[in-house]
Amino acid sequence: MHYDVIIIGGGVGGLAAAIRSAELGKKVAIIEKNEIGGECINRACIPSKTLIDTAKIVNKILKSPWIATSAKINYNLMNKFKDDIIEGIKDNLYQVINKHKIDLLSGKGEVKNEGEVIVNGKVYTYENLVIATGSEPLSLADFPLNGKNVVDPWTAMNMTNLPENIIIVGGGVAGVELATLFRALNKNVTIIELMPRLLPVPGIDIEIANEVKKRLEEKGVRIYVNTKSRIIKSDDKVIFQAQTPSSNEEISGDLAVITIGRKPVTDGIDLKAIKVETDQRGYIKVDNRARTSNSKVYAVGDVAGAPLSATKAWRQGIVAGDNIGNRNSQMPKYIPTSIFADLEIGVVGSTLEELKKNGINGREVKVNMKEIPRAWTLNETEGFLKIVIGEDNRILGANMIGENATEVINTITLAMELSLKIDDLYKVQFSHPTVSEIITEVVQRAIVGEIY
């Protein structure tokens, strides 16, 4: 059978490409070997945020002395709630797939020759191919995964029962989110990070990283930074040899969650045969229209390289579908990052330090959450918004930690994508009292002076 578009991989990037292509009149098939929704919906974004938000509800109750009750999490019921949400979202996706008459082929897609995909021994031909096969955890020599007590993040998060003592290797986004969740479930949590700080991620301000570290330690999470480690035993307990700046010690736990190391999934696809180039790590090279070195082949999501995020994957799928449907479309300049710790984090663009390293001058303007009235009514006054402004008064980056930070950052992303200047935002009024008024205040201070 012939299709205008065949998508290998039914995660969020592949789904977005399929739906947009179909909307633009193309005959489309998705090949998926496991479950529609991929990592994000089945094992990562959706389940993790569901569990973390549940934990945050309990924390909010416990920190509100005027609420005369106690609260604790029923782990089994919480997992059922999570599973119901996943199924509900997938049901909606199946409805959209059916609505647009997209064929769903179950199995592994193999490509040996240009223009052909083999699924379960049957050959399908295509005009355009979209590779959306994602990435997978990499078992590293110092942290060999065994599927039992040394596992990847999504295996840990979907375990029926969690042991008492959990060690997380890596203090990046996944490590911080999982530490938040596991500690809220009253587990003993340790983070081991090789770099001198948590969240050593491009665009994340050091002040955000320090605030996260302080918050986690206040809640009882033990954190090692600037620490080189390796697993020396995992028969029963998992034992790490850890070299800190001042000592060598052994750290033991019941479960080790390895949040570092991923690799692109391209097995079964002969990229050389279809003239698709990759980088040194095996990720497929794409331009800002999601096109590979072969004009008939697109790649979206994790398999197309950093950032490895569902946010990027979804948009890249839309861009690929647009261009396949002859609608000129490019990737945005700015992709925001959302981190769901006990205090949300929103990040977009560059930090002042990063800009200075590239010879770009700028200035920072910061507003603390405790200066915003709505933060007091929510009993969430910790955190801040910091923006970086260039010499031409355009916003070049923003970091926020605090209640609703993942929503506020989207508004700032909008302003940055449209190249708005601070003077343009000065004309805009946000409703009162809201958390997003923090944008109004940061603009006030950038141009005139504080109001709150």
UniProtKB/TrEMBL annotation:
<dbReference type="InterPro" id="IPR001100">
    <property type="entry name" value="Pyr_nuc-diS_OxRdtase"/>
</dbReference>
<dbReference type="InterPro" id="IPR016156">
    <property type="entry name" value="FAD/NAD-linked_Rdtase_dimer_sf"/>
</dbReference>
<comment type="similarity">
    <text>Belongs to the class-I pyridine nucleotide-disulfide oxidoreductase family.</text>
</comment>
<dbReference type="InterPro" id="IPR023753">
    <property type="entry name" value="FAD/NAD-binding_dom"/>
</dbReference>
<dbReference type="Pfam" id="PF02852">
    <property type="entry name" value="Pyr_redox_dim"/>
</dbReference>
<feature type="domain" description="Pyridine nucleotide-disulphide oxidoreductase dimerisation">
    <location>
        <begin position="335"/>
        <end position="441"/>
    </location>
</feature>
<keyword id="KW-0274">FAD</keyword>
<keyword id="KW-0285">Flavoprotein</keyword>
<dbReference type="InterPro" id="IPR004099">
    <property type="entry name" value="Pyr_nucl-diS_OxRdtase_dimer"/>
</dbReference>
<dbReference type="Pfam" id="PF07992">
    <property type="entry name" value="Pyr_redox_2"/>
</dbReference>
<dbReference type="GO" id="GO:0004148">
    <property type="term" value="F:dihydrolipoyl dehydrogenase (NADH) activity"/>
</dbReference>
<keyword id="KW-0520">NAD</keyword>
<keyword id="KW-0560">Oxidoreductase</keyword>
<dbReference type="InterPro" id="IPR036188">
    <property type="entry name" value="FAD/NAD-bd_sf"/>
</dbReference>
<dbReference type="GO" id="GO:0006103">
    <property type="term" value="P:2-oxoglutarate metabolic process"/>
</dbReference>
<dbReference type="InterPro" id="IPR050151">
    <property type="entry name" value="Class-I_Pyr_Nuc-Dis_Oxidored"/>
</dbReference>
<protein>
    <submittedName>
        <fullName>Dihydrolipoyl dehydrogenase</fullName>
        <ecNumber>1.8.1.4</ecNumber>
    </submittedName>
</protein>
<dbReference type="GO" id="GO:0050660">
    <property type="term" value="F:flavin adenine dinucleotide binding"/>
</dbReference>
<feature type="domain" description="FAD/NAD(P)-binding">
    <location>
        <begin position="3"/>
        <end position="317"/>
    </location>
</feature>
